[in-house]
Design a protein that fits this description.
- Helices cover about 10% and strands about 25% of the residues.
- With about 70 residues, the chain is of the alpha+beta class.
- It has one domain (about 5-74).
- The longest helix has 9 residues, at about 45-50.
- The relative contact order is 0.26.
């Protein structure tokens, strides 16, 4: 089974501050995809998101290393 999830918010995860975003808009004006997660190595899901216009802008830690999730693609 392959699982994915999306959570939307007006506030970013702490680690998002380390990314170089493609907009200067304030977070009150945009929704942040708080979590867009797919099971590790779910390449078809990653390609689908890219096909829908999502762009990979970096890889950062969001503080979930203790759960075996050290890196996230943003």
């Amino acid at each position: 089974m392959k699982i994915s999830v999306i959570i939307w918010k007006h506030e970013p995860e702490e680690g998002y501050k380390n990314a170089q975003w493609l907009t200067e808009d304030d977070y009150e004006r945009i929704y942040v995809v708080y979590t867009l997660a797919v099971v590790k190595d779910n390449i078809p899901a990653e390609r689908l998101y890219q096909k829908c216009g999502y762009q990979l802008i970096g890889t950062v830690s969001l503080g979930y290393e203790a759960y075996g999730l050290p890196w996230y693609h943003l």
